[in-house]
């Protein structure tokens, strides 16, 4: 075997490829009832880390969040994260995917994977040729980015209300594939969009007002912050200055200190929807792909996206109902994550003939010319 594999702790594999690229496969061992006896599922992240200990810490944190996300929606998976300790620049991704495929084979179906930071559909298509343990909509018209965007969109509908979207101004932070898809859906509903991206030209789209040249974007006037960029974006200092009514998004671990930032937002009566609620679109799609493969292959993408929005909208409304009764959001989440699920995993509840619609009316949208 061209990959050296060593289990350095429970659920932690240290792997070294033939090219001496180090990566870790970290499976979360704390399984809620919904995840016990199920395979783990989580994406491949390529990133430079200060040292291997930092990579393992992040992988543990992300794997745990994946477990919670999977349990919240009863996807039929536990959580795992594969982190590659390397710069994506100049990395031979094909040889890396060959190495990851070998590790997946040794795990014999106990771990499935897909895209994450600095990996893309092309990488997954190649990996899927080497291993059957890939869930990324390969061979279908399903776009994992659109699936993720559908989850965030449903969460926004649940938090803001379908009739209120056109009266709100959203700052979408990060105009990649997911952020763009969310912003375009909101624009179609009549919302105002402030777009921000570290690469300013990405934020130039019809109907958007590009605010990427504003270094202190959190001081701008907006109603809802939609985080679709890097992790750890909102610090306690930023949280104290946010002008908005709500925070939602697709970014994993959007707060650099979750407890501190969450406490500040709650103290300021700013509604925040945890990322494990809003960013579940791709894992819901994975659940259909894995547990109902024939249905998945024949489904129209729009039907799956609507199903995802339906689930995240309903979950958001359910959580907020409990939250508004005075229960802390962390307690609401814990009770939902560790509850016993009754019935099938969510992927088996999707039906080709059952319509799901959470789409509000379409409104004409004029481009913002001022902030």
TrEMBL record:
The keyword NAD applies. GO terms for biological process: amino acid metabolic process. Keywords: NAD, Oxidoreductase. InterPro entries: Aminoacid_DH-like_N_sf, Glu/Leu/Phe/Val/Trp_DH, Glu/Leu/Phe/Val/Trp_DH_C, Glu/Leu/Phe/Val/Trp_DH_dimer, Glu/Phe/Leu/Val/Trp_DH_bac/arc, NAD(P)-bd_dom_sf. Signal peptide: none annotated. One of its GO terms (molecular function) is oxidoreductase activity, acting on the CH-NH2 group of donors, NAD or NADP as acceptor. Residues 142-322 form the Glutamate/phenylalanine/leucine/valine/L-tryptophan dehydrogenase C-terminal domain. Belongs to the Glu/Leu/Phe/Val dehydrogenases family. This is Glutamate/phenylalanine/leucine/valine/L-tryptophan dehydrogenase C-terminal domain-containing protein.
């Amino acid at each position: 075997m061209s990959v050296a594999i060593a289990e350095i702790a429970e659920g932690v594999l240290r792997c070294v490829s033939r090219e001496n690229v180090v990566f870790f496969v970290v499976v979360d061992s704390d399984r809620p009832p919904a995840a016990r006896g199920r395979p783990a599922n989580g994406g491949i992240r390529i990133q430079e880390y200060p040292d291997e200990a930092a990579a393992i810490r992040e992988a543990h944190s992300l794997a745990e969040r994946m477990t919670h996300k999977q349990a919240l929606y009863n996807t039929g998976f536990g959580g795992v994260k594969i982190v590659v300790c390397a710069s994506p620049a100049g990395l031979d991704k094909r040889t890396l995917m060959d190495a990851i495929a070998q590790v997946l084979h040794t795990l014999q179906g106990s771990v499935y994977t897909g895209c994450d930071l600095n990996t893309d559909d092309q990488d997954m298509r190649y990996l899927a040729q080497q291993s059957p343990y890939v869930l990324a909509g390969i061979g279908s018209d399903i776009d994992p980015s659109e699936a993720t965007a559908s989850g965030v969109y449903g969460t926004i509908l649940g938090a803001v209300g379908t009739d209120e979207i056109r009266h709100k101004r959203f700052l979408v932070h990060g105009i990649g594939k997911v952020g763009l898809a969310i912003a375009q859906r909101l624009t179609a509903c009549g919302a105002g969009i402030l777009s921000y991206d570290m690469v300013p030209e990405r934020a130039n789209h019809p109907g958007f007002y590009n605010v990427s040249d504003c270094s202190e974007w959190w001081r701008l006037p907006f109603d809802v912050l939609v985080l679709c960029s890097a992790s750890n974006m909102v610090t306690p200092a930023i949280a104290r200055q946010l002008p908005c009514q709500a925070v939602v998004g697709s970014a994993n671990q959007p707060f650099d200190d979750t407890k501190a930032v969450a406490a500040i937002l709650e103290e300021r009566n700013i509604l925040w929807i945890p990322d494990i609620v809003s960013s579940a679109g791709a894992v819901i799609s994975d659940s259909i792909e894995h547990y109902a493969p024939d249905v998945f292959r024949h489904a129209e993408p729009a039907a799956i996206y609507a199903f995802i929005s339906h689930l995240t909208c309903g979950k958001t409304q359910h959580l907020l109902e409990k939250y508004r009764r005075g229960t802390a959001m962390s307690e609401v989440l814990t009770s939902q994550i560790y509850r016993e699920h009754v019935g099938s995993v969510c992927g088996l509840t999707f039906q080709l003939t059952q319509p799901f619609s959470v789409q509000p009316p379409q409104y004409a949208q004029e481009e913002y010319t001022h902030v």
